[in-house]
Structure formats: C-alpha cells, structure tokens
C-alpha cells in the first residue's frame, strides 16, 4: 500500500473523516478477502478491544453502504490500479524473459493484443452511398450547366476517362 | 470610344463598374481547369453579382478578361483586395476599351431604365445621322 500512499488523495477520499479514511486504506491492506471488512474496521479504530467480530462486521457494513465511503473506495481503487501498472508490466516482462514459464504464451498474447490489436472490418452499404454521390454529382453538373447557360459562360469540355465522365 | 459611350461610363456607379470587371475575371477563370466544386462556386459568384441594374442578361453579355486586361488586374491585385476594386472602377474606361462587351452590357443595363432608355435612343439616333 506504500505506493498508494505516495499518490495524492482524491476529492472523495479527502471528504471522509480520518477514521473512515483509515478504514478505506485498511480495506486494501487486508491479508485475505474473507473477513477483510472486519479487519479494516478494527484497524481503523472502530469498536474497542472487547468488540466481537459480529459487531465489527455490522459497523463495516454501515460504512460500506455510505455513498461517501463508496465513492472514496472507487477513487482509491482507480489510483491503486494505476500505480500497480508498472508492477504488472514488470511481472509480464519477467514471464516473457522465461520461455519455459507456463504462461509464456499467454503473456505474449497479452502484449501482442496491445501492441498490434486485431483490426476488424466493418461492412458499409457502399451501393447506397455510390448512388447518392452519383445523384449529387448529376445535380451539381445540371446546376452548373444552368448557370453557364444563364451567364453565357463556355465551360471546357469535361474529361472523359474510359468512356465515363471524370 | 465615342463621346456618348464615355457618358455611359461616367454615369455608371463605381460599384457596378468593378462588379462588371469581377464578372469578366470570373468568366476568364472559368475557362481554366478546376475541380467541379470550385467551378460551381465561381458560377454562383456570377449569380450573386446580379442585381436590378446588372441583370443576368447583362452579365451574360460580358466577355471574359482579355490578355491585356488580365495584366492590369494582376497589377491591381498587388495593392490588396480593397484597393484592387478601386483600380477596377478607376480604370474602367481602359477595361472597356480593351473589352467592348462592357459597353454593350452597359447599354443593355440602361435600357431597363426610363431616362436611360431615352438616352440610349438618342445615342442610336446620333449614330445613324
């Protein structure tokens, strides 16, 4: 959690009381996922030495349903994932350095997906588009002819490529 | 240029003078190669130039810029867009001498006006006498 503490606290986290802040931090420091909330509540200073696990669990539940605490958890989670980026990269690099590693192939796949992502081709209704474009061109040409005739402008002969107007 | 034609030029507004030159420039430009969109834009410029005096019919009479006129236009352009229009108006007599279609266009434009119609008639009579 040291890496998380090095980052500046966010707006949601700062809005909490110190005790609540300690609770949110402790959630990420819990050794196991099972009983993490009780662990965090105790570490944050909720209850007393004689408080049972059940009462601490109830206190933790009350904290977890608080929208402020939820916002702070989401905020800290984002920060945590961000600071974990370099660790993840180092771990993948370590796997890639060892061709005998059982996840060597998967690591290559993960890296390749991000370096050269697979491109997908989207089918577009080209027929409709061409038809519309041709109609518009015809309208423009017709308008040009009208204007040219109106103002006695002699337009150069249109270019013909393979029997079709350019 | 006859005295009567000089009078025609004298009584034409500056705005109409440079508009006629611009129409001539536009027609000259339309002779060249350009994309369809640009050509349409030039033709639409001609349409915008038309008003009650310089009607479509009058603009149709105006011929594209001659080679000598083009040189004057090029020199005028060096002064900037606003000043160039002043030059077109100031030197309209020169443009008219090089491009007689301006006089023809002015005669046609003046036919629509009551007082001018009589004046043009007088001009024609004077020529026949």
The overall pLDDT average of chain A reads 81
Assembly state (oligomeric): heterodimer
Helical stretch count of chain A? 8
What is the overall silhouette of chain B? globular
- Element pattern of chain B in H and E: HHHHHHHHH
Give the tally of β-strands of chain B: 0
Strand portion of chain B, in percent? under 5%
**Overall form of chain A:** elongated
The radius of gyration computed from the alpha-carbon positions of chain A, rounded to a whole number of angstroms, is 33 Å
The proportion of strand residues of chain A reads under 5%
Head-to-tail CA distance between termini of chain A: 68 Å
Task: Walk across the major sheet of chain A and give the strand order.
Answer: 1-2
- Classify the secondary structure makeup of chain B into a structural class: mainly alpha
Our Rg estimate of chain B from Cα atoms comes to: 15 Å
Kindly report how far apart the N and C termini of chain B lie: 17 Å
Percent of residues in helices of chain A comes to: 55-70%
Q: Largest sheet of chain A, described in full?
A: 2 strands, antiparallel
